[in-house]
């Protein structure tokens, strides 16, 4: 008998609008037990190919969507991991989220993504929503959160991983790197090239605490030598190419004999490079330029951009590893809860 024809003959009449298709409906149409459907949804390879084919056809025919929340209530958590980033416009987090999603999907976990636009109140609202869905874990960006957000997460009993930063007091687990050390690395590199009149150019550092920490690390390292001057210059808006142009002009006005800049990200550095070209300022002869992030254009812009690579993919893999360890009953303890992924300074033509 043709499997497709047999399946069509068993298709029930169209369900009334808003009447949810259940696992029982799938099992009935596929002529298997509900437990077999449940096993297929969790571990498809554990079901025989013939049964799996029938279940897949039934799911497609009925438009069945597993109720992960209902299923999770019995186990006190769903198969959802909530990830909250400062901005989905920021390319820096894309690699981390993509890697994290791939790693978790392989274990049957799905990702819900939210962005706080660097606002603590918005982040708190996203955390409240996430906890209402009984997530398997919550992933936040950075270590700076409102007191209420920390309180909510600490009381929830849900595994929490803060990513892209270490060096503070994490709620539970943390994966990332030291932002002050990143700033210090940039300063040491520029000083090693004989630069002495320095500026750090950043955007919305009143909200982007990690960028502010990189700026502080840069300034402290520059001043520690006793042979350099340093200004930290902040643009109140978003970190864009246009902001880089504006910031360079301010730096030229504020820093006598400016000969090097470090930027809070590669977009700002690119804007600074464009402005140097418009003004006829040779890079690196007149001004050395360093960025942060190692975005795709950094190696191919003219001149190629010296930058700092934060290993976003490694951060994603380590966050996933901590989450899965906790789910499998091997919750990390002690120093193993904090993973330092480090950073790499990539020297190119701009310095």
UniProtKB/TrEMBL annotation:
Per the record, a Pfam family? Answer: Peripla_BP_3
Which keywords, in A-to-Z order, does the entry hold?
Answer: DNA-binding, Transcription, Transcription regulation
Tell me the ranges covered by the HTH lacI-type domain, including all copies: 21-75
GO molecular function terms listed in the Swiss-Prot or TrEMBL record: DNA-binding transcription factor activity; transcription cis-regulatory region binding
- Highest taxon in the source lineage: Bacteria
Task: Enumerate the transmembrane spans.
Answer: none
The protein here is known as LacI family gluconate utilization system Gnt-I transcriptional repressor
Which organism does this record belong to? Microvirga lupini
């Amino acid at each position: 008998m043709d499997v497709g024809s047999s399946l069509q003959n068993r298709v029930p009449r169209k369900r009334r609008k808003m009447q949810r298709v259940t696992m029982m409906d799938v099992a009935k149409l596929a002529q298997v037990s509900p437990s077999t459907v449940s096993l297929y949804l969790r571990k498809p390879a554990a079901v025989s190919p013939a049964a799996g084919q029938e279940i897949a056809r039934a799911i497609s025919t009925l438009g069945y969507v597993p109720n992960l929340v209902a299923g999770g209530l019995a186990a006190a958590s769903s198969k959802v991991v909530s990830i909250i980033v400062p901005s989905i416009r920021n390319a820096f987090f894309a690699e981390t989220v993509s890697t994290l999603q791939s790693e978790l999907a392989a274990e049957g976990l799905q990702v819900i993504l939210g962005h706080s636009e660097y606002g603590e109140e918005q982040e708190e609202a996203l955390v409240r929503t996430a906890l209402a869905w009984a997530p398997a874990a919550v992933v936040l960006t950075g270590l700076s959160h409102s007191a209420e957000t920390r309180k909510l997460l600490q009381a929830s009993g849900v595994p929490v991983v803060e990513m892209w930063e270490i060096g503070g007091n994490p709620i539970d687990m943390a994966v990332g790197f030291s932002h002050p050390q990143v700033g210090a690395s940039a300063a040491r590199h520029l000083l090693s090239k004989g630069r002495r009149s320095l500026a750090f150019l950043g955007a919305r550092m009143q909200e982007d605490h990690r960028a502010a920490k990189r700026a502080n690390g840069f300034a402290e390292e520059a001043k520690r030598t006793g042979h350099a001057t340093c200004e930290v210059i902040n643009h109140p808006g978003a970190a864009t190419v246009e902001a880089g142009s504006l910031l360079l002009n301010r730096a030229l006005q504020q820093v006598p004999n400016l000969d090097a800049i470090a930027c809070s990200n590669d977009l700002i550095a690119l804007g600074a490079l464009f402005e140097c070209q418009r003004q006829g300022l040779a890079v690196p002869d007149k001004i050395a330029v360093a960025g942060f992030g190692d975005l795709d254009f950094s190696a191919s812009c003219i001149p190629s951009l010296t930058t700092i690579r934060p290993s976003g993919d490694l951060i994603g893999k380590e966050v996933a590893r901590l989450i899965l360890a906790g789910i499998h009953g091997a919750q990390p303890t002690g120093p193993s809860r904090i993973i330092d992924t480090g950073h790499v300074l990539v020297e190119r033509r701009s310095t």
